[in-house]
Amino acid sequence: MRRVVTGPAEDGGAAIVLDGEPPTVVEFGQYRTAELWVTDSSPPAVPGAADPPTRPWELEPQRGGTCFRVVRIAPALVRQYERE
């Protein structure tokens, strides 16, 4: 998965500030979640040198914050005898 984050450019336009794999991917058995973006408040702070999703993973954001994730749920395993 590729994550592209834009922010303000010096000329007032938009610029790509982050481009690459999500920094935090957590697996729980058949579940896999990729943390794409996290904020602690609204409106969010404009990203600087720190990439918010690189901090330790938490299920819920801080009060007033947000989190944007992609969750993949793998199909259940099918045993051989169940197919027959």
Q: How would you explain this protein's 3D organization?
A:
The chain is mainly beta and about 80 residues long. The chain is built from 1 helix and 5 strands, in the order E-E-E-E-E-H. The protein has one helix at about 80-84; strands at about 5-10, 15-20, 25-30, 30-40, 65-75. Strand 1 and strand 2 form a beta hairpin. The model has no long low-confidence stretch (mean pLDDT about 85).
Write the layout of secondary structure elements.
Blueprint: E1 3-8, E2 14-20, E3 24-28, E4 31-39, E5 66-73, H1 80-83
Antiparallel strand pairs: 1-2, 3-4, 4-5
**What's the total number of strands?**
5
Large-scale geometry: elongated
Q: What string, H for helix and E for strand, traces the elements in order?
A: EEEEEH
Radius of gyration using CA atoms only: 17 Å
Strand order of the largest sheet: 3-4-5
What is the average of the pLDDT values? 83
In the predicted model, the low-confidence regions spanning at least 5 consecutive residues are none
How much strand content do the residues show? 35-45%
Q: Mind summarizing the main beta sheet?
A: 3 strands, antiparallel
Distance between the termini: 36 Å
Q: List the total number of helices.
A: 1
Helix content: under 10%
Derived from helix and strand composition plus strand pairing, the structural class reads: mainly beta
